[in-house]
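[Meeting: bench + compute handoff]

Bench side (C.D.) handed over the final construct sequence. Compute side (W.E.) agreed to return the predicted structure before the next meeting so the bench team could plan truncations. Sequence as handed over:
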Amino acid sequence: MSDLIKSITDAQKKAKVVDVRSGDTVRVYQKIKEGSKTRIQMFEGVVIRTDRKNSLDSRITVRKITSGIGVEKSYLLHSPLVEKVEVIKRGKVRRNYLTFLRDRAGKSARLVGKDFDKSINDIRDEKAEAEAAKMKEEAKVAAEAKAAEKAAEEAELEKKQAEVEAAHKANA
């Protein structure tokens, strides 16, 4: 039975995921669906927790300070809603859970940076890129259709205006 479960979870996993560690400053691009439209929203902050790195439900918790208020979001790395994760900076830490950063503000909340190989961000997911290209193409086709509809509507209004002006000239 465990082989069946393993095969199903492996099918759901993304091919490659960025090696994210606690203390990293990351940029997470997430798909947001609003009505019929889909957009990509970015969230940048410090990873304060990583869970179950090698499993399907591997998760990171990202924290940032916005207008003096701490905001935390958890992301499942293999979720189809997470478009990509970029590591901006790597912090030098000795713990896995950096929950002590919640109690700190200002300079005491900073982490010392360390050098890292930025090529870890060069993970390409052809499936996701193809889907993004498809979404852009659909948006372009929809915009062209809307523009054509608007042009036809304006042409009809101009035609009606010309008829009205002709009627006024005939009456005058």
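W.E. noted at the follow-up: The chain has two domains: 2-123, 125-172. C.D. will use this when planning the next construct.
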